[in-house]
Amino acid sequence: MPAGKRLTVLQCLPALDEGGVERGTLEIARALAVDGHRSLVMSAGGRLVAQLEDEGSYHLTRDIGRKHPLVLAHVRPLRRLLMQERVDILHVRSRLPAWIARLAWRRLAAGHRPHFVTTVHGFYSIGRYSAVMTSGERVIAVSESIRDYITDCYPAVDKSLIKVIHRGIDDNYYRPDFAPCEKWLQSWHERMPMLRARTVLTLAARLTRLKGHAQFIDLISRLCTAGRPVHGLIVGGEDPRRSAYAGEIRAMAKGLPITFLGYRADLREIMSVSDFVLSLSSQPESFGRTVLEALALGTPAIGYDHGGVGEILRAIWPRGALPVGDITAVYNRVMECVARPPEIPRSHPFSLKSMQDSTLALYRSLTLHEPSYMAQPGKF
Predict the structure, then answer these.
(1) Does a structural domain hold residue 347?
(2) Are strands 138-141 and 276-279 parallel, antiparallel or unpaired?
(3) Widest CA span in the chain
(4) Given a cut of 70, is residue 14 above it in pLDDT?
(5) Quick check: 380 pLDDT over 50?
(6) How many other CB atoms sit within 10 Å of the CB of residue 357?
(7) What integer pLDDT is reported at residue 19 of this predicted model?
(8) For 142, what's the count of Cα atoms within 13 Å in the CB-facing half-sphere?
(9) CATH assignment of the domain containing 298
(10) Which of 49, 81, 185, 373 to pair with 336, CA 20 to 30 A apart?
(11) What is the pLDDT of residues 209-244, one digit of tens each?
C-alpha cells in the first residue's frame, strides 16, 4: 500500500461514555477524518457518539464489551465487516473487545488481515485475559509507566513492538490565559455562592474506589480544623453498580464544605476557577489527564508521585508530586501554596497534535509492510 493511500481504520472499545479511553478514541478518529482517512468506531454506544459522528467518523453499535457468553456472537459479523469494509488497521483499546476482535482477525486468511494494533490504557490485572492487550503488531503504551508495566509483567513481549505515545491535550483548548465566558461565570456564581472568598480544591474522579475520595475528604477536614476557609468539589459520575460506595463517601463528607457535582462537561471551566486540582488515587493512573489539563490552565495540581500523574508532575511542576498516600504532605503543600501562590510553567511536552501525529504515523508505517502478520504467532 502506498504511504499516501487513504486508510480505513476501525477502533474497538466497550462504550463511548466518559473516560480517557473514550477521549483517546475520539481524538484519533477526528485526526483520521481531518487527514482524509475513513474512521470507523465500534462500541455499545454512549453520550459521545453524536460528537464522534459530527467530527466525521462512522459508529457501529455492537456490545462487544459485554461480559456474557453471547458476546462471542459478534465474532463472525465482525470478521465479515473487516472483509467487506476492507479495514486496513484494527485498533483495540480494551480487553474483551480485543479478544472478540482478535478472534475475528485470526480467522481471516493471512494475506487479508488488517494490521492489528493495541493500546494499553491501564495497569490491568496480570494474566492471560489481559495479555491480549500486548498481542498487537504494535503495542501502544500511553506513558512510560505503562511501558514499564508491559515489559515487567509480560517479558516475552518483543520490546521493539512497544511504542510509547503519551496522551495529549489541545493547547488551544487548555491554555494559561483561558477564562470562562461571562454567561458561564454568572451561572456558576449563582449556583455556587458558597465558593466566594474560599480556597477551592477540586478532585476530578468518578465515584469508584481507589480514586482517593476519602483522603480528599480528610484533607478538607484538616484545612477546616486549621481555620482555612475552603470548599471542596468532587467532580465525577456515579457508577450505578457502586451506589453503596457513593453513599459511603457522601456520608463521610456530611457536615463538611464539600459539593458533589457529578459528571460535568465543563470540567475545564471548573478547573480554571479552582485554586487547586488534586489527584489522590491509591493506585497509579496510566496517564493522569486531568492533572495535565489543570497545569495547562495554570491551576496548581497536586498528586501522588506514581504512574502517569507522577510523570506529568515531574515534567512540568515537580513541587506537585508527593509521596503516595501521604495526605499530611498534601496538606502542607496546599498551605504553602496558599501562603505563596506558585507560578506554573506555561509550556509542556504533552500535546494532542503530537499524540495524533505519532499514532497516524504508526498506522502508516504498518501499511508499508504487506501482508499483515501475527506478531506472536500461536500465543493466543
Answers:
(1) no
(2) unpaired
(3) 70
(4) yes
(5) no
(6) 15
(7) 80
(8) 25
(9) 3.40.50.2000
(10) 185
(11) 899 999 999 999 999 999 999 999 999 988 777 889
pTM as predicted: 0.86
Q: Of the candidates 137, 102, 119, 87, which has an alpha carbon nearest to the alpha carbon of residue 369? A: 137
**Together in a domain, 154 and 232:** no
Q: Is residue 47 part of a domain?
A: yes
| Predicted pLDDT of residue 369 | 63
Of all residues in the chain, what percent carry a pLDDT higher than 70? 96
Mean pLDDT on 337-350: 94
Same domain, 301 and 194: yes
Rounded Cα distance, 305 and 329, in Å: 12
Query: By the 8 A CB rule, do 278 and 201 touch?
Result: yes
Regarding whether 20 and 153 lie in a shared domain, the answer is yes
**88: β partners:** none
Domain assignment of residue 115, yes or no = yes
CB within 8 A of 228, min separation 6: which ones?
199, 335, 338
Q: What is the pLDDT of residues 288-299, one digit of tens each?
A: 899 999 999 999
- Rounded distance, CA 10 to CA 142, Å? 19
Please tell me the predicted confidence (pLDDT) of residue 253.
Answer: 97
Examine the domain organization and report whether 150 and 239 are in the same domain.
no
